[in-house]
Structure formats: C-alpha cells, structure tokens
Amino acid sequence: MPLGLLALAIGAFGIGLTEFVIMGLLPEVAADFGVTEATAGWLISGYALAVVVGALGITAATVRLPRKPVLLGLVVLFIVGNALTAVAPDYGTALAGRIIAALCHGAFFGIGSVVATGLVEPAKKARAIAIMFTGLTTANVLGVPFGTFLGQQLGWRSTFWAISIIGVIAFLGILLLVPSSGEGEVQVSLRRELSAFRSGQVWLSLVVTVLGFGGMFGAFTYIAYTLTGVSGFAASAVPWLLVLFGAGLVVGNWAGGRLADRSIDGTIVAFLGALTVVLVAFGLLAGSPVATAIILPLMGGFGFGTVPGLQSRIMNYAGGAPTLASGANIGAFNVGNALGAWAGGLGIAAGLGYTSPIWIGAAFTVVALAVMIVAAVLAVRTRPDSADAAPVDTTALAAAH
Fold first, then answer.
1. Which residues does 112 contact at the CB level (< 8 Å), separation at least 6?
2. How many CA atoms does the CB half-sphere of 325 hold within 13 Å?
3. C-alpha 28, offset from chain centre
4. pTM
C-alpha cells in the first residue's frame, strides 16, 4: 500500500470525526453557549450545507492548481476551522468555525479520491478509494466514541483541540508521503471539468448517490429513538449499538472497494438490493432487540459498501475531467443525508412512529436500485466496453502524482 494513501486516510479520519462527534456533544455545547438544542443543531446542519458548497465551489476554483498543494491548503482550512471552534467565545463564532472546517470536507474527499487512484495501478482504483475512506469509517467506530468521552470528561472544547492536532498530523503526512505533481501533468481547466456533466451516466450516478445514501441515513438519523422507543434498549446501550453500525461501515467499505474493482455496476446493484432487504427486515423486526443488533452492522455495511463503487463510477464516466465530478459526488452524499433526515422527520411528525424513517429509507433505496439498474443497462447498450470495465484515463490522472 502506498504510504500516501495512509496520509489521505488520516485526513479522512479527522474530517469524519469533525462531522459526527458533535452529535454526542450537543447538550454540552448548548449549555455552554446558553442556546436551545435546536439552535445548537445548526452546528450539524450548517456543517452539512457548507460541505456541499465546498465540494463544488472550492473544487471548481482549484481545478487548475496542482492537487497536492490544494490538499495541503484544505487541511490548513480544516485545522483553522476546528481551532476556531475550540476557542469560540460565543455560539456564532463556533458556527463560523464549523462552516470553515466543512468547506474543506467535500473538496478533500473529491480531490483526494482522484489522488488516491493515481497512486495505484488501474485495477486497484476502487480499492484505493476504499482505503482513503477507511479513515472516515474508522472515525465512526473509534473516533466518535472516544471524542465524545473526551469532551464529556475534559469539556467539549478539548475534543476540537484533539481534532486540530489530528489535522496537523494529516498535513505532515500529505506533505511527506504524497508525491508531488510530475512535469508531464495534463493541464486542467474549469471548462474541461464541467464537460463531465454532459454525460448522462454522471447524472444517473449522482441520483443513485443521493437516493442510496438518503435511504440509509434516513433510517440512521433517528436510530436512537428507534433503539430506545421500539427495540426496548436502554439509552446507555445506544453508543455500543452504534459501534456495531460503525463496524459494518468499515467492513462494507473494504468489501465494496475490492468487489467494485471486479465489477462496479454489479457491486452497486447487489449492495443496494441487499440494503433494501435489510431495511425492510429492520422495519418488520425493529421490536426485537436481537434482530436489531444483527441488522445494524448489515445496514452500515451494505449502505457504505456502495461508496467506493459510486465514487469510482462517476470518475470513470467523467473521463479526463474527474475532479469536479468527484467533488460533486461527495456533495451528493451530503444532500442524500439531509434529504433522508428530512423525509424521516416528516414520517415521525405525521405520527407514523419511530419505524417510519426505516420504511421511508427502504423506499429511497428501491428507487436508487431502479435508477442504478437503468444506468447499468444503458451503459451496456450504449458502450460495450462500459465504465464498469474501463479504467480511468490514467493520463488525466497524472496530475495526481
């Protein structure tokens, strides 16, 4: 494994920790600033919206620049945002710090995915993306519980200081381990990057990303209410059950990366189909603690197992202009998160109970599966050597190393 992938994974770990650890610290943050929990919740939703802006805006603004310096600049932005949150004297400053940190999120994963594929041979592209995203999944399994514990013991600000230190480590890792651009790199322009969106397959991939992740996170957003209000678990058991979900993310990410290198479209279809079955089973069996404990890692595994394939697919169909399309797909994941959470909330507000987000999520994944099947069929009909087998244009990716 190229050591540059390890450096990218450390950066992904820090970013994943920044995004998710705040959920367990909201009560402490709200109490410190004297705001309601609903107001404090904007530290989460504001972050998600900023991710989408950064994924498109910053990626578009930096497409002509060498990728390694851009990644380093993004990590600096990440460090500054988290440090500002840690020292924030008021809620507004903390929100500003969260937004600054979020701006690097989508661009880092978008550009980092292109860099990661440039560090390995074409047959291992999806696996390289999966290695980078391992940092994000590990953040959910190990980082979030530890970060929450640290914040509860030493104050929530200590968690963001720790995240800032992780950012410094990631900066040094990328500086020392990710190769610089070579002399023969292809000149990239914004117009060329925008040309990727002429591909219908790029748009179909984005739709699948939004709906597929919307389905999983629609169910996951309200999982604490489901576990305590339907499954009958004590509130103290919820963090440990979420570790099961996080373990599923890690395994699914690893398996999805390996399988997608064999067949991208086949892997995505299979995982979305399996996720649909798992969500339907969860909706039917949520009242059983044993069944729920078994289903949680499966939901995380099949849901996140689509990520390497979807990221690799959109880069393949973007051809020689993968950077902006890659960033757009990261934005699409966050749009899916927000859409799923919103739709699940509507179900609860309508009095349909705490299993309604699960059923709504299952409906999302059914549509995502249908769109993906259509995309795969069209790919075969329009081009026999479809992107399911075709490698990314390695000439265009020369800029990654």
1. 8, 11, 12, 71, 132
2. 32
3. 26
4. 0.72
